[in-house]
Amino acid sequence: MQIYKVGGAVRDRLLGRPVSDVDWLVVGATVEQMQAQGFRPVGADFPVFLHPHTGEEYALARTERKSGRGYGGFTFHASPDVTLEDDLIRRDLTINAMAEDEQGTLYDPYHGKRDLDQRLLRHVSPAFAEDPLRVLRVARFAARYAPLGFKVADETLALMRQIGESGELQALTAERSWKEIERALMESEPQVFIEVLRSCGALEHLMPELAQGADTLAALHQAAQRQQALPVRWACLLRGLEPAAIKALNQRFKAPRECQELAVLVGEFAERADQALAMAPANLLEMLQKFDVYRRPQRFEDFIAACEMAALGPGYPQGEYLRGAAEAARAVDVKPLVEQGLTGQALGEALKGERLKALEAYTAG
Prior knowledge:
This protein has helices at 8-15, 31-36, 84-88, 112-117, 133-145, 154-166, 174-185, 190-199, 203-206, 208-212, 217-225, 230-238, 243-252, 257-274, 281-291, 297-311, 317-330, 335-339, 344-364, and strands at 2-6, 23-27, 40-41, 48-50, 57-60, 62-66, 74-78, 99-101, 106-107, 120-121, 151-152. It is of the alpha+beta class.
């Protein structure tokens, strides 16, 4: 039995980046041997075990064979005769196909260190084209390592284009696709994710609305620079699209509710927010009511943030103006109206009237 550290932990150590998660590969062992040493099995599709003391994942070396469409269309084979090289060749990129033994010796049969030095994201073998999820993964890695100067190798881009043209991208589940999209959006250069998908032709298959629609990558980049939350980044990406296109993208990838709601609201109200300084108090109140700023203040704050990211300039005075308007409306006290005996619809109308007065005073001041 031989144990190796593999994948991202090796890659990031060589890049001088922090290593968070460590994946371990076990060569020459059986399931029974692992269990006899106290490892707990957790893998549903192939043998993965948790270390009895550290809780880290240890996987048996395995090979895979394409047996159907999509990300899950593979048959796995794990046995003691599977070598380190057999296991590493099934991985996506050469920089992810390196291993270290327990003495720290580097094993690099597919020249991942060379590609690290040359700042290239290159596929390990032609089997790369069998897994459509790798198109999104490579684009995500491009977004992560763009600050270090990494590019996707031309031959890998060609394979990614081949996958798109094969129709395999349509076999990806919404959940798997969104997981990659979400992780990519939270990288330091998320716009690179979209640029890579566009350059290999995958964007028109995955997100045709963006392939043909407005270019919002500058706003997305600004959102990343300002360390905005995921809903803000998703809304920045979709800003400028027609409502039907925003709805289609939200549903296709089953985006989280917060992302869906903010994207729709930004699509509907962003242009009005840009004109906020000239907005009539009644229209301002209508916007605040639509956002439910009284019970969900963070959603309105995220909306303003998305508008600020799209402005790209030195400042966005509309943002502070809208924050002040929301604060003025929230400051209206409902207690005096209740003490007057108002209830139900009458109370709602009276409260709305008082908030309108507050906004009239705010806009006049």
